[in-house]
Specification:
single chain, 5-stranded mixed beta sheet, alpha/beta, Nucleotidyltransferase, domain 5, 20 helices, about 35% helix, DHBP synthase, 22 strands, globular
Length: about 575
Amino acid sequence: MPVLGLSCHYHDAAAALCEGGRILAAAHEERFDRQKGSPGLPVQAINACLQHAGITLDDVPVVAFYEKPFRKLERVLISHLRAWPRSLPTFLDTMPPWLEDRLVLPLALQRDLGFRGELVYLPHHLAHAASAFLPSPFEQAAILTADGVGEWDSTTMGAGRGREIELKWKLEYPHSLGLLYTAVTTWLGFRPLRGEGKVMALAELGEPDLLPQLLELVTVRPDGSFRLDPAAFAMVEGDRMYGRAFEQRFGPPRAPGAPLEDQHRAMAASLQRLLEDIVLRMARHLHAQTGLDQLCIAGGVGLNITATSRILEDTPFRELYIQPAAGDAGGALGAALYQSLRQGGEREPMLSAALGPEYSDNHCRRALLTAGLEPVELPRELLLHRVAQLIHQDRIVGWFQGRMEYGPRALGQRSILANPCNPRMKDILNARIKHREPFRPYGVSVLRSGAGAFFAPDRDSPFMLQVAQVLPGQADRIPAAIHANGTSRLQTVTLEQNGIYAEMIQAFEAISGVPMVINTSFNDNDEPIVCSPADAVRCYQNTELDALVLGPWLVEKPRASGDHSGA
């Protein structure tokens, strides 16, 4: 019996369809409506999941929602009352969405989709915990969830065994790692819920010189629990989320787009160091409490890969699992899996993030012809050789194959690919293709069989959620893949799990001697990753991409219009 899971009405709305512990489909709404972080009821993502399974909503008896709205409203009202009257502007902005959407979900599902079955609400952090543990390969594991806030909880810890999950320890709002990170993100001049990854990258360029001052505003205990100074972090007094005490200590905020100074780099590095220290303390405490050597993580903090990558090095845990949609979008998956397993079935490990829609070769061809392009259809071996050749020639390729990825990372289904051997490639991608800040680095997709020759530690990273140190003597071979701190963010790739994508990297290795390519998401700056062939064609035409692969079809721009060699 299929169960549909939903997350929406805050940010990163998504839908997931599961049956008996098996994941049938999952997708973000933003990929369809083309609005970054789209928050509304994910109607198009729901339809995509149902279409993939060949069913209608009439065949779905249960919808599972990723939080308890009335419990969350309780926290919102109490928080605003505690800060009254300073919270009045935020209160006036907050209440209409609650009255229009969040409290009437059953009516919206019936009105917009004709759903008349059962609607089940899960606690937000239980949905996160389920999304972390239930698709993991572990029969039992410790569980850590950390994000901004759900209903009241901001962090939970516990364990999973078989189909069961028990969360025993928690921190509550407003003491939140996610909100702390977002508050400082806004002080640094970046957008909340979008700029946190920029801060993580900026941290690599600074020294944590401001950590002692931060620790005067954040009280951290040995077990990782902490308290935020309410005078420094004002969560319901506007979008900025930091208070007067923060400004008094660190000065006025950076204006969006203003130059980045040493103080901003130091703040990013100090914030990142503080987050890592807290996460590691929590992990050590959790290991001591559970005695388990396996750990599963979910919540937005789970996407801070610089922090989570330290867990296996600096705590007693020996195995770590983070599924690719660790943030709020993954709550849809957790809700669907949890409820479907209540009805029977067995857990199945999540081996691939390719859970979204897929498009036929004819659909790809029509999109190209409609745009006035003249694609060439190549046999598989010739296509792979040509793409590898283009990348080796420093041409930048849009790559579109199979089912779309679930989660924020492109993993070889909807990717932009480039040469890691060109020392200028990071600057080229940032300036000409992605149109983003010049300090932001890129990850790589590397053949699992060749990863150990370039990176340490040598371990699986199928969802690009780990960083590794570049080994001595290899930096000169892959300069575009190296972050400022000497690490790389990497996705390990195998023929069994990645098919044609792994074959293409093998073809590149045959030409270059390097078993990896730069892999970044197929989109322009501040746009969602492409979903359909038409999306991919638009991105190709509106950027300086040199070539586009849609299934077996290849188009190339003339060399003179996009010569990146030696740029």
